[in-house]
């Protein structure tokens, strides 16, 4: 288990996410499992993307995509030991990238997906994505979970190409949420 979640702040409008997973799921009973995603921008307003390790159980080699492909922002399942959903996002960011959160700025969005494995009851996941500020952008990946990372501009996401890396997505919402992160960041009043 990772070290304790570092101290961070968040604005009052995120208070509804300052609850544990069970409390949040009581409010949204159409979902069974929660996970978080984290949009982190560097000083050049590029978004951090991570590529899954080759032996990762779900979608190996994915940018959190297929080999030479990009897709996901850092994140993962909310644990029952996470104090709040915001703590889960901060913990996942630290575990996967080594980055230390200082502030959760805003909710970027959410999307759901099903996990209908044969012989098991269907599970509906809800993924909540938050923009988080970090104390520095020196990424140290957990090699068990990820093998590479990139910083991508909005135009690179639109074009599905970062340098010579072709971007592909597990599902359309994974691209849409990245573009929403850029949009919200541009619309935000400087703080």
Outline the structure in words.
The protein is an alpha+beta fold and 191 residues long. The chain is 22% helix and 28% strand. The strands form 3 sheets. It has a 4-stranded mixed sheet with strand order 3-1-5-4, with helices on both faces. The protein has a two-stranded antiparallel ribbon with strand order 2-6. A two-stranded antiparallel sheet has the order 7-8. Strand 7 (161-162) and strand 8 form a beta hairpin. The protein is globular. Mean pLDDT is 87; it is low at 59-70. This is Nudix hydrolase domain-containing protein.
In short:
Helix content is 22%, strand content 28%. With 191 residues, the chain is of the alpha+beta class.
Order of helices and strands: HEEEHEEEHEEH
Count of alpha and pi helical runs: 4
What are the low-pLDDT stretches, counting only 5+ consecutive residues below 50?
Answer: 59-70
Helical fraction: 10-25%
Quaternary structure? single chain
Measure the end-to-end span. Answer: 34 Å
Query: What's the average pLDDT?
Result: 87
Residue share in β-strands: 25-35%
Structural class: alpha+beta
| Shape label | globular
Based on DSSP secondary structure assignment, what is the total number of beta strands?
8
Tell me the strand order in the biggest sheet.
3-1-5-4
User: Major sheet: size, sense and barrel closure?
Assistant: 4 strands, mixed
Backbone CA Rg: 16 Å
Organism: Setomelanomma holmii
Pfam families: NUDIX
Protein name: Nudix hydrolase domain-containing protein
InterPro entries: NUDIX_hydrolase-like_dom_sf, NUDIX_hydrolase_dom
């Amino acid at each position: 288990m990772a070290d304790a979640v570092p101290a961070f702040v968040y604005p009052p409008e995120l208070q509804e996410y300052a609850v544990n997973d069970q409390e949040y799921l009581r409010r949204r009973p159409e979902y069974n499992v929660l996970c978080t995603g984290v949009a982190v921008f560097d000083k050049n307003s590029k978004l951090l993307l991570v590529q899954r390790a080759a032996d990762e159980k779900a979608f190996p080699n994915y940018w959190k995509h297929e080999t030479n492909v990009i897709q996901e922002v850092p994140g993962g399942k909310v644990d029952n030991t996470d104090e709040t959903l915001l703590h889960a996002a901060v913990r996942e960011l630290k575990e996967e990238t080594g980055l230390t959160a200082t502030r959760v700025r805003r909710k970027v969005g959410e999307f759901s997906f099903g996990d209908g494995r044969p012989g098991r009851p269907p599970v509906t996941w809800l993924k909540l994505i938050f923009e988080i500020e970090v104390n520095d952008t020196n990424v140290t990946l957990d090699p068990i979970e990820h093998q590479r990372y990139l910083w991508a501009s909005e135009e690179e996401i639109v074009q599905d190409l970062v340098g010579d890396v072709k971007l592909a997505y597990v599902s359309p919402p994974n691209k849409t949420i990245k573009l929403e992160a850029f949009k919200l960041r541009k619309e935000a009043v400087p703080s």
